[in-house]
What does this fold into?
Amino acid sequence: MTAASVESVIPPSGRVERLRGAGAFAGVAAVVWTVVAASGAWLPVHRAGRTGKWGFFPGRPWLGGWVRFDAGWYRSIALHGYSFHPGRQSAVAFFPSYPLLMRAVGVVTGDVLIAGIAITVCAGLTATLLFERWASERVGREAAWGGLVLLLVYPYAFYLYGAVYSDALFLAAAIGAFVLLEHDHPVGAGLVGIVALAGRPVGVALLLGLIVRAVELRRAAVTANRSRQWRLGGVLIALAGLVGWCGYLWERFGDPFVFVATERGWHQAPGFRTWFKIKFFQDLVHIHRPAQVLLYLAHPAVMLLAFALVPIVWRRLGPGYGSYTAAVLLIPAVSTSNFWSMGRYALAAFPCFAVAGALLASRPKSLRLVIMGSAVLLLILSSFYARGVYVA
It folds into this structure.
């Protein structure tokens, strides 16, 4: 492979590396925002997007297209706090970091949904910059750039560009915690980890990864005769996010794990039917339109591809990142009744994008094809999402 062929896909490194990442994010975001606005303005929108359920920004599709599905729950929590109704869908299913931040930023914006959109965009940009820095140190600049582009045009990456969901915030916090730990700031990693553990149930995967990585770094320090006594203690601070959330639920509703109980309202309670995906096969039998079948099968396909990369993550990046990636995929894969939303959940498995970039770095033609195909799917799914079609 010639240097010219590499540079056609991988820009040269230098002092502009950070601006390059920000520019890539801004460029993709601009296209996605255009697609969302145009889809809401010119294409048929689900009736819920035209009426009260999601119709929060009538006449402004560039904003309304980002407020779909669970955005209503986050808005309700930000405005009114938490509630629990046994046997029904309830607000306690959603962890507090994102809606609390929506409430805080909403004081400035005057609208918690605009705050949510702004938080997602800022978190997506932050995750982009952190990922490029982290990946450059782990797999090299060329592979890091390829991995970053794969992340930015990932078909479900519209959750990084404005969707009122907590995924972008979690991703930024997870990468940030690992970056801080790698640069000998374990207390900072633990403090940032609080946001992640109070942000989504899969936050425990981050705690696991940080602990294993801290042990790895401590052993390496001992081997090199350098003292690193506070690594493990620092990252354990992250546990305060989950403990604080469970403590609130215990005091308010009498059950520290009520967020598990409320999953029955979404037909995803722990048990035989959920673990063996009975609903997945039942739903698949009743889906007849080819487009719906493809949307449905995309989630287990993404899950299988991500799991296939876990051994490579473990081998190339070490047990810390391997255990994090395995856990952050396994938790939702086990707890979902039909694999639905695994495409979105896989965003958190950021080491997979780094090793994918490394694997494709020496295959520029394959990298181009994957990027182009993924980008097309991103725009299609962004349009579907904006029009109220449930894709993740």
Q: What stands out?
A: Residues 1-14 have pLDDT under 50 and may be disordered. The chain has one domain: 3-263+365-386.
